[in-house]
From TrEMBL, chains A, B:
<dbReference type="GO" id="GO:0000287">
    <property type="term" value="F:magnesium ion binding"/>
</dbReference>
<keyword id="KW-0464">Manganese</keyword>
<keyword id="KW-0560">Oxidoreductase</keyword>
<dbReference type="InterPro" id="IPR024084">
    <property type="entry name" value="IsoPropMal-DH-like_dom"/>
</dbReference>
<dbReference type="InterPro" id="IPR019818">
    <property type="entry name" value="IsoCit/isopropylmalate_DH_CS"/>
</dbReference>
<keyword id="KW-0520">NAD</keyword>
<keyword id="KW-0479">Metal-binding</keyword>
<feature type="domain" description="Isopropylmalate dehydrogenase-like">
    <location>
        <begin position="4"/>
        <end position="351"/>
    </location>
</feature>
<comment type="similarity">
    <text>Belongs to the isocitrate and isopropylmalate dehydrogenases family.</text>
</comment>
<dbReference type="InterPro" id="IPR011829">
    <property type="entry name" value="TTC_DH"/>
</dbReference>
<dbReference type="Pfam" id="PF00180">
    <property type="entry name" value="Iso_dh"/>
</dbReference>
<protein>
    <recommendedName>
        <fullName>D-malate dehydrogenase (decarboxylating)</fullName>
        <ecNumber>1.1.1.83</ecNumber>
    </recommendedName>
</protein>
<dbReference type="GO" id="GO:0051287">
    <property type="term" value="F:NAD binding"/>
</dbReference>
<dbReference type="GO" id="GO:0046553">
    <property type="term" value="F:D-malate dehydrogenase (decarboxylating) (NAD+) activity"/>
</dbReference>
<dbReference type="InterPro" id="IPR050501">
    <property type="entry name" value="ICDH/IPMDH"/>
</dbReference>
């Protein structure tokens, strides 16, 4: 059985790290006898927008929906196209139209990577952020009244549905059940955001009844961000709304020193639509074109894609190879952000060779 | 001229740290010849709620509006009263009815306090978070439809007004102008929250035109929280909406190791209504009643109150006394959270004596 992968490199360093992501996937595919077929698309980038006036062609949904997964680089180049246009016109379309309602991001302190937190060792930080990825604070409902006057008022709705909340909670509880510590933390702000967040809390209590073996706690988002810094070892699976999950899944990798190398998965768990795998980092216009971007985020995202396709062993082999190359610490191989003088290609090749 | 201060100790450790806050204020008042008169109120606590069925008496506004400032301890005791009731029934009423539209919190790495961030020294982290304190994400507009069914949907509006946004921005720009680095950072999320946040950005651009001497930048809230951890030295004055300011003003103090001792001011800059000064920490039911809570947050909040009343020198004297006692590091004096075996009273007394 051949798995068909749609490849969209996007903008900036997205186009540089993508070949290394594919190189690692091909190495793992060979090793574990997996048939992968890659199809590259030019759309979903700001250059495409400048040429066509939209980020995606009209029939993008038809073109992509038959693939087994989307492998995405990075999108956005504010000097060419404002972020809210490039992102709402591509990534956020995929997430919503393909009902990728789970955004999953590991936060793991890797060997050889220095945490900005004092005294933390690999093993101390190892948790997942599960983010609701289709509704909540990222709504398109609202508008402006009395525009251009002193009475100007702008309103935007946060929308939570029982379907939307329950399914992300279920996924998070299920994930917690696969982990040794069986612990779930809910991000809330029900003491301040007085309608949607108490509802979120209620659904957590309801869902928890079906998982008596999971230890559940909750923190308001303000103190939760503080606790990511003060007690990152407390966390195992952290579940949050679209916005809270977004914040926590940048802060978490930052605490592990891996913001430049963290991966993410945008998942439609039922497999009705393709899921999308992308590094957490953006297109980084400032270093684009130099061949010095760290490709680990892309490669690690490829590992998450293999796991999603059912190849856990192959996925683990990629992560192990990343850890090995990082802990060897060869400065000719590693890129500048992790203390070396190597290139995107040297690091990508070392990881592929290790697989 | 006598300044009349309304004192509301609230719940839990609020009642324990308040006497030390007053002790320090009285020491500074004596030293600098300031006439302060304290009037204590029992309402605004969960015990008051249990007795009276509401957090505040009906005429609280009349009772309090003539005071020059409110000195507040901490409110909330979830086992007695759910947080959203106790907080919306007290603190959030004060903020809104007294139009305390600025929430100001210093984030400063103090001598003798260990930062959870690796290798940071006093001097490295010294910035203010300016938070919009009356509108934005903390709205009471919204509701639930199809309750109890699978179609259940819950909606809450974020509401931003030009008045509300511009005045907090103006305050933040003015504050930046008093600082040596003259730098302002705006917290946004205009790439995801597509209506209110682009509006916030627009108003920042507009306001910046009136402050050509201020260096302005902006970050999306996700990467901004990451940068608090990775580059806390980048920041001078950080301005954010109600929710983003809330998050950043917990995370900032956490990064300086001072979440238990950070102060805050809820300010009505025009002085039409009294401003409110309170520690960042909550009522801490877990350690309440033991006399071991650190009173510095309350004392430092008192310093902010004096500064607000026009006594900058007296305020500085309190902060200097706090720094001195912390750097002396006498374990008989300091409370457990900062490495000592002392009590709320021993630490409060040492600071008052030093003033
Ligand atoms: C207690 C809560 C409602 C409050 C807030 O979110 O404003 C608190 O976190 C704060 O920052 O003062
Ligand atoms: C680019 C932006 C719209 C996006 C988000 O907020 O979802 C990004 O921060 C992410 O986390 O994937």
């Amino acid at each position: 059985m051949t798995h068909r992968i749609a490849v969209i490199a996007g903008d900036g360093i997205g186009t540089e790290v993508m070949p290394e992501g594919i190189r690692a996937l091909e190495a793992a595919a060979k090793q574990f006898n997996i048939a992968l077929e890659f199809t590259t698309f030019e759309f979903g980038s700001c250059d495409y927008y400048l040429e066509h006036g939209s980020m995606l062609p009209e029939d993008w949904f038809e073109q992509l929906k038959g693939f087994d997964a989307l492998f995405y680089g990075a999108v956005g180049w504010p000097d060419k196209v404002p972020d809210h246009i490039s992102l709402w016109g591509s990534l956020l379309q995929f997430r919503r139209q393909f009902d990728q309602y789970i955004n999953l991001r590991p936060c793991k302190l890797m060997p050889g990577i220095k945490s900005p937190l004092a005294g933390r060792q690999p093993g101390d930080i190892d948790f997942y952020v599960v983010r609701e990825n289709t509704e909540g604070e990222y709504s398109s409902v609202g508008g402006k009244m009395f525009g251009g006057t002193d009475r100007e008022v702008v309103i935007q709705d946060t929308v939570m549905t029982r379907t939307g909340v329950d399914r992300v909670l279920k996924y998070a509880f299920d994930l917690a059940q696969t982990r040794p510590r069986k612990k779930l933390t809910s991000a809330t702000k029900s003491n301040g955001i007085s309608i949607t967040m108490p509802y979120w809390d209620e659904r957590v209590v309801e869902m928890a009844k079906q998982y008596p073996d999971i230890a559940v706690d909750k923190f308001h988002i303000d103190i939760l961000t503080a606790n990511f810094v003060l007690h990152p070892d407390w966390f195992d699976v952290v579940v949050g709304s679209n916005l809270f999950g977004d914040i926590l899944s940048d802060l978490g990798p930052a605490c592990t020193g891996t913001i430049g190398i963290a991966p993410s998965a945008n998942i439609n768990p039922e497999g009705h639509f393709p899921s999308l795998f992308e590094p957490v980092h953006g297109s980084a216009p400032d270093i684009a074109g130099k061949g010095i971007a760290n490709p680990i985020g892309q490669i690690w995202s490829g590992a998450m894609m293999l796991e999603h396709l059912g190849y856990k062993e192959a996925a683990d082999a990629i992560v192990t190879a990343i850890e090995k190359v990082l802990s060897e610490g060869d400065s000719q191989v590693l890129t500048g952000d992790v203390g070396g003088q190597g290139t995107t290609a040297s690091l990508g090749k070392a990881i592929a060779d290790t697989i």
